[in-house]
Amino acid sequence: MKVLVLGSGQMGKGAAYDLVRNDKVEQVICADINESMAKRLADEMGGKAIAKRVDAKNRDQLVSAFSEVDSVISAVSYTVNLLHTEVAIETATHMCDLGGNLSVVKDQLALHDRAKDAGITVVPDCGLAPGMVSVLARAGIEALNSVEEVKIRVGGLQQEPRPPLNYALIFSVEGLINEYVEPCMVLRDGKITYEDPLVGFEQVEFPEPFGTLEAFNTSGGTSTLPLTYEGKIKNLDYKTLRYPGHGHKMWCLMKLGLMDGEEQDFDGVRIAPRKVLEKMLENNLPESGKDATLVRVTVSGWKGTESRQLIYEMIDYFDDASGLTSMMRTTSFPAAVTAVMMADDTIVDRGVLPPERSIPPEPFIKALRERGLNIEFKQI
C-alpha cells in the first residue's frame, strides 16, 4: 500500500518514521508546501519515502496527491481537515487526521453518508487525546455491562521541569491556549454538560520520578466521546496533568485577560492580548528537552453483579534511539496505525467515524505496544 503524509513537521515526521518501518507499506509520500522540507524528511526516512510538494489548501493539488495512494494522514492544521475529508471522498481514499477542533469534526461527521457511499473510512481526531485515549475508553466501556464513570487524565511533561511554569511547549502554543480557554464538554448523570477550563483541580499519583501531579479541566480531550456515550454511561471527563502549581499560574493569566482573543487598544496599537501571551510563551519558556507523556484512563462500573475498575496506563519517554519526542510518538503513531488499518481492512466500517466508533481496540492497542508504547492494563 501507499500512504501520503501531509505535513513534514514534527507529527508528520513521527508518522513517516513509523510507516517506513511497516512491512505492509510499500511507499510513503512525504508532502509539504515547503518542498525542501518534504525532501529533507524523505531523505531522512530512506528508500521507501519520496517527497512531493503539496499545498494543503489547494484542492487540485490535493486531488492529484490523494489519487496516488491508498491512505492519507493529514498532519497539518485542523482548519483544512474538512477540505481534506471532501477530497478523500472525491478520490475514494481513506484518510485520518490529528483533529484539534470539535466544530470542524462535527462538519466532517456530517459527510458520513457520502464517505460510506464512496467506500472509504475517514477518522478524525487520530492523535493522542483525542485519539488513543478514545479507543482505550471504548475498550474499558465494552468490557463492562454498565459504566458509572470514565476518567481520562493525560499530560505531556518535561522530564526535568523548569521555571517559571514547570512546562515547555511540547506542542503548539495556539493549541495549548485553546485548551485553557474553551468550555470542556463532559458527561454528568448521563447528559452532556459544559464545565469551565482551569478548574476542578485534583491530585494524581504516578510512579517516581513524577510523584504527585495536578490535574484540571481542559477542553478538547473528550471530543466526540460525550456525543457517542450520552445516555449510556453516567459520568465522563478529561483533565490535563501538569506539575503542581502550573494550573493556578495559568488560571491567573486567564483571569487577568491575557488569554482574551479580542483585539484591544494599547496606546493606538490594536492587538489581542492572547497574541502577546502566545509570543511571550514561545520566546521565554525553556526548550522542551527530553519529554514524557503520561496517560491514565479509568473506567468504573459493573461486570455482572461485581463492581469493577479498569485502568489503562502509559508512561512514555523521549526516544534516544530515534530522536523522536514522546509527544511525537504518542500522537503520530496512533495515526500511522489507523492509516494502515483502514487500508488493510482491519477497520471495516465505512463513513466518517470518530476513533471510538471505528477503531477496534484489541489490534490497535497491540500495534501500539509493538511500537514501544507500553500501555498497561489492570483491574480492581
TL;DR of this structure?
This protein folds into two domains: 2-127 and 327-373, Rossmann fold (3-Layer(aba) Sandwich); 132-326, Dihydrodipicolinate Reductase, domain 2 (2-Layer Sandwich), CATH 3.30.360.10. Strand 8 (184-188) and strand 9 (191-195) form a beta hairpin. Helix 1 (10-19) crosses helix 12 (326-343) and helix 3 packs across helix 4 (81-91).
Q: What is the correct CATH architecture of the largest domain? A: 2-Layer Sandwich
Briefly note the structural class of the backbone: alpha/beta
Q: What proportion strand?
A: 25-35%
Number of domains: 2
**CA-based shape:** globular
Overall mean confidence score, pLDDT: 96
**Number of helices, where a helix is a run of at least 4 consecutive DSSP H or I residues:** 14
The percent range for helix content is 25-40%
Instruction: For the record, give the distance between the C-alpha atoms at the N and C termini, rounded to a whole number.
Output: 42 Å
Instruction: From the 3D structure, determine the CATH topology of the largest domain.
Output: Dihydrodipicolinate Reductase, domain 2
- Low-confidence blocks of residues: none
Largest sheet geometry:
7 strands, parallel
Q: Please, what is the CATH homologous superfamily of the largest domain?
A: Dihydrodipicolinate Reductase, domain 2
Question: What is the CATH first-level class name of the largest domain?
Answer: Alpha Beta
By DSSP, the count of extended strands is 18
* Biggest sheet strand line-up: 3-2-1-4-5-6-17
- Cα Rg: 20 Å
